[in-house]
Amino acid sequence: ARLAGSVGPLSGRHIVVTAGPTHEPIDPVRVIANRSSGKQGFAIAGALAALGARVTLVAGPVALATPTGVIRQDVTTAQEMAEAVDAALPADAAVMVAAVADWRVEPATQKLKKRSGPPPLEWQPNPDILADLAADPRRPRLLVGFAAETHDVLAEAAAKRDRKGADWIVANDVSGDVMGGEDNQVHLVTADGTESWPAASKAEVGRLLADRIADAIKDQ
Ligand code: CTP
Ligand code: CA
C-alpha cells in the first residue's frame, strides 16, 4: 500500500522537520521550556508529505496529531532532538521549526523542595542543531531555519541566516499573539533578499513553504 501523499513533486525526497519546544528538566518534576505549540512545524511537515516527500518529523512535547504520511519521532530535550536529527540523515532538505531551549542544567535527581528556597541553576549551552547541521558533511542541500523575533525582525533574521549557515530563514514577529494561534505572518529571507508573505493560516503558510521547497530542490 502506498502512503498517502507519496506521489507529487517531492516524491523520492527525504525531508527532516523539527517542531515544537524542547523541555529541559531541572528536577524529576520541573522543566525549563520554550513556548511553541508546534502548529507551524506540524503544518509544514504535513504539507511536505502531501507533495510526496518522505518526512521525518522530530517533535518536542506538543499536543498535536501526526499529519498524514509523516513519520514522527518524539523527543523531550534539545540533546535528544539533536540525536534524532542526526539519526534521520541523510536528507534532501531540513526545516528547523523547533523552538529549542538554548541552555540546559544538570537536573537534580530528587525533587527540589520549596522550603530550600529558589535553586541556583548552573546553565550550559545546548547544541545548536541548525548550525551543527550547516557545518556537517551530510548537510542537506536546502537548510531552512526559523526565527521568532520580538524586535528588529528582518535584521535579526538576516544576521541569523549568515551566522548559522542556513539557506533560508523564515522570520516572524512574535511580539503579538502568534504563539499558539492559528495564523502567522512570515518573511522569507534568502540569499536574494527578503519577501514578506501575507498573513495566513499556519496551514497555508505550510503549503506555501512546501511549494517553495519543492521548487528549490526539483533540479537537484
Ligand atoms: N535552533 C536549533 N538549535 C538550537 C537553537 C536554535 O536548531 N539550539 C534553530 C531553530 O530551530 C531555528 C533557528 O535555529 O530554526 C533559530 O533559532 P533561534 O532561537 O531564533 O536562534 P538563536 O541563534 O538561538 O538566537 P536567539 O538568541 O534569538 O535565541
Ligand atoms: Ca534560541
Automatic annotation (TrEMBL):
<dbReference type="GO" id="GO:0046872">
    <property type="term" value="F:metal ion binding"/>
</dbReference>
<feature type="domain" description="DNA/pantothenate metabolism flavoprotein C-terminal">
    <location>
        <begin position="10"/>
        <end position="215"/>
    </location>
</feature>
<comment type="function">
    <text>Catalyzes two steps in the biosynthesis of coenzyme A. In the first step cysteine is conjugated to 4'-phosphopantothenate to form 4-phosphopantothenoylcysteine, in the latter compound is decarboxylated to form 4'-phosphopantotheine.</text>
</comment>
<protein>
    <recommendedName>
        <fullName>Coenzyme A biosynthesis bifunctional protein CoaBC</fullName>
        <ecNumber>4.1.1.36</ecNumber>
        <ecNumber>6.3.2.5</ecNumber>
    </recommendedName>
</protein>
<keyword id="KW-0456">Lyase</keyword>
<keyword id="KW-0479">Metal-binding</keyword>
<keyword id="KW-0210">Decarboxylase</keyword>
<feature type="binding site">
    <location>
        <position position="102"/>
    </location>
    <ligand>
        <name>CTP</name>
    </ligand>
</feature>
<keyword id="KW-0511">Multifunctional enzyme</keyword>
<comment type="similarity">
    <text>In the N-terminal section; belongs to the HFCD (homo-oligomeric flavin containing Cys decarboxylase) superfamily.</text>
</comment>
<dbReference type="GO" id="GO:0010181">
    <property type="term" value="F:FMN binding"/>
</dbReference>
<keyword id="KW-0285">Flavoprotein</keyword>
<comment type="pathway">
    <text>Cofactor biosynthesis; coenzyme A biosynthesis; CoA from (R)-pantothenate: step 3/5.</text>
</comment>
<dbReference type="GO" id="GO:0071513">
    <property type="term" value="C:phosphopantothenoylcysteine decarboxylase complex"/>
</dbReference>
<dbReference type="GO" id="GO:0015941">
    <property type="term" value="P:pantothenate catabolic process"/>
</dbReference>
<keyword id="KW-0288">FMN</keyword>
<keyword id="KW-0460">Magnesium</keyword>
<dbReference type="GO" id="GO:0004632">
    <property type="term" value="F:phosphopantothenate--cysteine ligase activity"/>
</dbReference>
<comment type="pathway">
    <text>Cofactor biosynthesis; coenzyme A biosynthesis; CoA from (R)-pantothenate: step 2/5.</text>
</comment>
<feature type="region of interest" description="Phosphopantothenate--cysteine ligase">
    <location>
        <begin position="15"/>
        <end position="220"/>
    </location>
</feature>
<dbReference type="GO" id="GO:0015937">
    <property type="term" value="P:coenzyme A biosynthetic process"/>
</dbReference>
<dbReference type="GO" id="GO:0004633">
    <property type="term" value="F:phosphopantothenoylcysteine decarboxylase activity"/>
</dbReference>
<comment type="similarity">
    <text>In the C-terminal section; belongs to the PPC synthetase family.</text>
</comment>
<comment type="function">
    <text>Catalyzes two sequential steps in the biosynthesis of coenzyme A. In the first step cysteine is conjugated to 4'-phosphopantothenate to form 4-phosphopantothenoylcysteine. In the second step the latter compound is decarboxylated to form 4'-phosphopantotheine.</text>
</comment>
<feature type="binding site">
    <location>
        <position position="164"/>
    </location>
    <ligand>
        <name>CTP</name>
    </ligand>
</feature>
<feature type="binding site">
    <location>
        <position position="111"/>
    </location>
    <ligand>
        <name>CTP</name>
    </ligand>
</feature>
<feature type="binding site">
    <location>
        <begin position="127"/>
        <end position="130"/>
    </location>
    <ligand>
        <name>CTP</name>
    </ligand>
</feature>
<feature type="binding site">
    <location>
        <position position="146"/>
    </location>
    <ligand>
        <name>CTP</name>
    </ligand>
</feature>
<feature type="binding site">
    <location>
        <position position="160"/>
    </location>
    <ligand>
        <name>CTP</name>
    </ligand>
</feature>
<keyword id="KW-0436">Ligase</keyword>
